[in-house]
Amino acid sequence: MQSAWNDRDAEAAVARYENLGRDVALRVYTTRLLGQDPRLVLHGGGNTSVKTEVADLNGDMVDVLCVKGSGWDMGSIEPAGLPAVRLAPLVKLRAREKLSDEEMVRLQRANLIDPMAPNPSVEALLHAFIPYKFVDHTHSTAVLALTDQPDGEALCREVYGKRVGYVPYIMPGFGLAKAAADVFAADPSVEGLVLVKHGIFSFGADAREAYERMIALVGLAEARLAKNRKPAFVSARLPARPAPVAAVAPIIRGACSLPDGKSDGAWKRFVLDFRGDAAVMNFVNGADVARYGQAGVVTPDHNIRIKNKPLVVAAPGEGDLTGFRTAVRDAVAAYGLTYKDYFARNNARVGGIKTMLDPSPRVVLVPGVGLFGLGRSKKDARVAADLAEAAIATITDAEAVGRFEPLPESDLFDVEYWSLEQAKLGSAKEPPLAGQVAVITGAAGAIGFATARAFAAAGAEVALLDVDEAAAKAKAKAIGGAALGLKCDVTDAASVRDAFAQVASIFGGVDIAISNAGAAWQGRIGEVDETVLRKSFELNFYGHQRVAQAAVKIMRAQGTGGCLLFNVSKQAVNPGPDFGPYGLPKAATLFLVRQYAVDYGNEGIRANAVNADRIRSGLLTEEMITSRSKVRGLSEQAYMRGNLLGREVAAEDVAQAFLAQALALKTTADVTTVDGGNIAAALR
């Protein structure tokens, strides 16, 4: 590991934050250096601090500890992520014998300079008790590979000698802060502290010294791990042709989903994130993966995100997905029972005061395929997968020089069910489509894009499919987050299959398919060329059928139901003059909706449609508006407002109708009319 310190970049940070002073500016700079290296810090882990002087709200200068705040990521931290806390009251707490986590949080908040600032890190007191100006803390994978051994402390002493102090494992909080301060006081010459089975601290008189001490100490761990290595894993016998990710992911996702007791037919679903590089495959393919893969997390900080261990399932062969589906469901059920036993055992130990979290795994290891991170959003799934990859690096190194041995389950439980985390249960309100994946065809058009935005705002992960790949990607970028833009020509069966396979590989499956792609052909039905009619049917009927078939295949593999939504248009029930080539396939699609409702309702798959009219879009262009207005003998404004309410209907109105249908778990075979009121197009 090499230092990334750069004098020019450091001075640029000082200039950028000149109003905050050099101390805070350099604290931000080196915190980012640490946070941007996944071998040191991942997703909110680790923390840093600087002791400096700032003006309080009265304008008086006071000594403070600027320490990483809760919820901030070190890789992208800003000064606001380093709340300033009065230092003297924190240091005074060292004289206390006991201090609960809740009291500690209140005392820290009571001494914030800015009362609106985020909570200081739970390890703020440890930073306060170490007298150095700059203090850094990481969860280095290399250091953890040394400490996560049966003789972890002895191995670290071999590497570091008296260069660092050694703190036995204690859960973060006041007790750890006092113990670390005592170890430092016994030998103030140390450059850092190794927290056994937790991480490492370094400190210095200035930002560069603290940072480069961290790099040097981690480098020594890496050097030790490079010596006397043995092959970490012996590969198991695997199917000659493993099943593809696109086929495996929906099975994993469906098996890990949980019925939501709030409403009949509702599910708590998870989004997936797949990893399968050489390091991952070497790990998951090991014959002994059930031992080292399920031993426990590499640092207790990870337990809050990915539970106490991953799920390991059998290797899937390409030709036996039915057997694999059964095996996975059995494995998930067994995991849930084991988790419930783990909870009951440890909850009894602490007096039965905890509320159990859901028993679904957050990491699934699949020999021959790779690993899946699970989360209620794509962001959370990526976090889980990142932490799993970091664990793989740590465990691989640990097994190469010894034997991986994490903390016992009681310590892992205490962190997973930390009172500070339990207090958050029920406080966060999830959006209605959290955990669901929606696919929209024709997504670069006005209705498709408005629908994609509406579903993303409701918490779904969205895949925007369009024949124009560049436009699909541009629209996805405009939505932001994990929105995905893909090329899909619904008149090409192979293109549809490939697009849905990509969605399944990237998100884990499909819950909602909005079949929206279409185009309008005109002509008097008795005179139109058959070629025109066939082209319209290919897009406006068979395109819907291909999309629905691809979606249903994935939904059935998941086994958690789903929702098919179709744009059928007013032409399906109220044909207009010279519009037969468009209206005929739309009428057939209306029947298609009802057939899907009949055939798959017993599997929880709903099929509904929106019957919209006169929406400005790529289909109803300005030129077409002019043409249709003339056919009807109306002005363009009168044509667009030609309904009972006298209001022009927008793409966003159609999007909201689709969203309402997606949320209506007890509704199928429904056609919702969105046209401002047209009795001729109204259904009984």
From TrEMBL:
The upper taxonomy is: Bacteria, Pseudomonadati, Pseudomonadota, Alphaproteobacteria, Hyphomicrobiales
Look up and give the organism this protein is from: Bradyrhizobium sediminis
* Record flagged with keyword Oxidoreductase: yes
For this entry, the protein name equals Bifunctional aldolase/short-chain dehydrogenase
Instruction: Output the Pfam families linked to this UniProt entry.
Output: adh_short_C2, Aldolase_II
Family annotation (InterPro entries): Aldolase_II/adducin_N, Aldolase_II/adducin_N_sf, NAD(P)-bd_dom_sf, SDR_fam
| Family membership noted in the UniProt record | Belongs to the short-chain dehydrogenases/reductases (SDR) family.
NCBIfam families according to UniProt = PRK08324.1-6
Residue ranges occupied by any Class II aldolase/adducin N-terminal domain in the UniProt entry: 26-225
Sorted UniProt keywords: Oxidoreductase
Keyword Phosphoprotein part of the UniProt annotation = no
What are the recorded GO MF terms, alphabetically? Answer: oxidoreductase activity
What Gene3D superfamilies does the record tag this protein with? Class II aldolase/adducin N-terminal domain, NAD(P)-binding Rossmann-like Domain
User: Where, if anywhere, are coiled coils annotated?
Assistant: none
